[in-house]
Specification:
The protein is built from 2 helices and no strands. The chain is mainly alpha-helical. It has a domain of 25 residues. α1 packs antiparallel against α2. The termini are far apart.
């Protein structure tokens, strides 16, 4: 039986990276959804903006990570 590996799971570091990306995407989705709910429910502009800023920060971090801009160092949220 021939087994193939997807390129993203070929090495241990990549498997760890995939989990990190999944976690970050889930967090980003939550920020976007909650930000929308806050806006719909009349939250203050400061509360909504805080979610927008955090989502933007996380998007930039994901872009650096996915774009191969590092070895995974400095990923702490």
């Amino acid at each position: 039986m021939m087994m193939t590996q997807t390129p993203s799971l070929a090495g241990h570091d990549n498997a760890l990276l995939d989990g990190t990306v999944d976690d970050m995407l889930l967090r980003l989705r939550g920020l976007v959804l909650v930000g929308g709910l806050l806006e719909q429910r009349g939250a203050s502009a400061e509360e909504v903006e805080a979610h927008v800023r955090e989502a933007d920060r996380l998007r930039a971090k994901l872009a650096r990570l996915i774009g191969g801009g590092g070895d995974g160092a400095g990923l702490a949220a």
